[in-house]
Structure formats: C-alpha cells, structure tokens
Design brief:
The chain is mainly alpha-helical and about 325 residues long. It has a domain of about 200 residues. About 80% of the residues lie in helices and about 0% in strands. The longest helix has about 35 residues. The protein is globular and about 55 Å long.
C-alpha cells in the first residue's frame, strides 16, 4: 500500500508546535533553534519510523517553499542598492574559500585530491548540495562523497548555534550579521535558521546572500568537470550539454526555486499585493520554515557526524576561521 506524507507532516508540525509552546513560556529563546533541537533529540533517540519517513522527507520542499513565499517581505530597493557590493562579496568569498580549502587539503593535510575538491565546493558554495553536484560532475567515488558530506553536516550543525551566539556577543547589527552568515555559513537550511533566530531583517539578508552563492553551483560544477576531464585526458566532451559539466548540467544543478523567490519579490514590490496579503505570505513562510527545520533536526544523525576523520574537519575549520573572520571585518566596514 502506498505510504502517505500526511503522518510525517503531522509529526513535523507537532515538533514545531512544541517548540513554539516552549518558547512562549521561556522568553529570549528562538523557536526555530528549539525546533531543530527537539528534532535532533527525537531523531537521534527514537529515529524516524517508517510511517513518518515520507512526510519527514518533505522538509526540503518546505524550506524551498518558505524561501519563495518570503520574497514578498523583502524590500527590492534595499536589494538593488546593495546588489553590486553583495555580488562582489559573494564572488570574493566563494573564490577565497574554494582556493584555501583546496590548498590546505592538498599541501598541508595531504587529503585525497577529489575529497578536497568536494570539501571546497561544500564549504564555498552551498553545503551538501554542492558536494553532490560536484561529485556528479567529476564522477567521484561514493566513499569520498560520504566523507565530505559528513564533514559539511558537522559544521552545519555547529555553526547553526555558534553564529548567533557570536553575533550577539559582538553586538552585530541585523544587516551585518545576515550578510556575514549568508556569505560564510555552508547550507541554506542552517543559514536560514541562524539568520531568522537573530532577527527578521538578519534572516532576509542571510537568505538573499545565500541564494546568490547558491546560484554559482552550476558554474563551479562545470569548472571542476573541465579541470578533472583535462587531467584524465578526457576533455573532448567537457563542454557537451549532455554530460556532467556541460551547459545542460549547469541548468540541471541551478536551484530553480530561486526564480520563484524573485517572482514573488517583484510582484510584491511592484504593488500587486496588499499589505494584508504580504503579511499573510510572511506568516505562511514562517510556518513553512517551522516544518523545514523540524525535518532538518530529525534527519541529522549525530553518530554519522562522529565518524568523520579529523583531517577534513581541520581543513574546513581553518578555512572557515580565516574566511569568516576576514569577511566579518569587511562587512562591518561596508555596512
């Protein structure tokens, strides 16, 4: 009998409502962080039962839906004003992170070359999604994928809590924190959670910057595919649209929900939506994020994170420390 997603979605909603109930009696604690913590506790203590798995696996869809709908509450004039600066910061951050991780992996820690490339893409662009996309473009062994993905997930689960704590300790403004988190954290889910746990404005900036970084995933996949194809003497097909690294692959790896986000942003800012409609969409975005982060917590396995070797962790840690520190200084100067 075909399993339905409804029980799992109800489980996600229950976790979210428990988090909201907890934060209503414990002031000063963000409900999104509590949602993830409850999911972590349940997922790592009891696991996800078969009857709930189809619904729990929809958490990525809820995240994308929340991002799309959130476009209604973003001020376009603010985005346009910061656009060129943000783009330059994104390009600089991605390039620096990828090169630094590659150099540390190859020259300092002697990590397998392809694993180093997966770590570089995951750290520099968009977390596990980049790891998988680059792995497909260079046809890497599954063991290397698991190694890199586990390392990225370890930092996702750590920075999710560390970044807001550092931001509050340093007294960062919402704009500075959001841009900094969007530039230097890894995966979209943790960036969104960290941003909105800091403030609504920080969450919006974090998402805008992170989506800009995500859009570079296809170009990075092509660059890596060409590089590895030439090294193996198989560069003749690297620009073919039907193979990994080609232009069709660029389109396939591009996060399509970005178009939905931009469309809603334009519709709202051109005056086609009333204030009440924008408020309703903002509330819908909050509920979508609630379901997404409950699923994120449930599917994070702490035992898998503990299996990661120390060398990839050190590579990513040193690169993150250098890039995050430098970009925090730059963002504070610019904003």
């Amino acid at each position: 009998m075909k399993r339905t997603v409804v029980p799992g979605i109800i489980a996600l909603l229950t976790i979210g409502l428990l988090a909201r109930a907890f934060t209503s009696v414990v002031p000063g604690v963000n409900y999104l962080i509590v949602t993830i913590l409850i999911g972590l506790l349940v997922g790592n203590t009891y696991g996800v039962p078969d009857w709930a798995r189809p619904g729990v696996e929809t958490h990525k869809v809820w995240l994308e839906a929340g991002i799309v709908v959130m476009g209604a509450s973003v001020a376009l004039d603010r985005v346009v004003a910061a656009g060129p600066t943000i783009l330059l910061l994104v390009v600089a951050t991605v390039t620096t992170t990828v090169l630094l991780v590659e150099l540390l992996a190859r020259l300092v820690f002697s990590i397998h070359e392809e694993t180093g490339s997966l770590l570089a893409a995951g750290s520099g662009i968009c977390g596990v999604s980049a790891v998988v996309a680059i792995a497909e473009s260079i046809r890497v062994d599954e063991n290397h994928i698991a190694y890199a993905a586990a390392t990225v997930l370890l930092f996702d689960s750590t920075t999710l809590f560390v970044y807001p704590a550092v931001g509050h300790a340093l007294g960062l403004s919402s704009t500075v924190f959001g841009i900094w988190a969007g530039l230097t954290m890894f995966s979209t889910g943790p960036v969104t959670a960290a941003g909105f746990s800091f403030s609504q404005t920080a969450g919006q900036w974090a998402l805008l910057v992170k989506l800009t970084r995500n859009s570079m995933i296809g170009l990075a996949a092509i660059a890596y595919a060409v590089y590895y194809a030439r090294r193996t003497g198989d560069a003749s097909d690297s620009n073919d649209g039907d193979v990994p690294g080609g232009w069709r692959f660029l389109w396939q790896t591009f996060p399509k929900f970005v178009f939905g986000f931009l469309a809603v942003l334009l519709v709202a800012n051109l005056g086609f939506l009333s204030g009440q409609q924008i408020t309703s969409l903002s509330n819908a975005s909050d509920w979508a994020f609630l379901l997404a982060f409950a699923g994120l917590g449930l599917e994070t396995r702490l035992d898998e994170l503990r299996s990661t070797g120390y060398k990839p962790i050190l590579v990513v840690f040193f690169a993150l420390l250098v890039v995050a520190t430098a970009m925090l200084f730059v963002v504070q100067v610019l904003f």
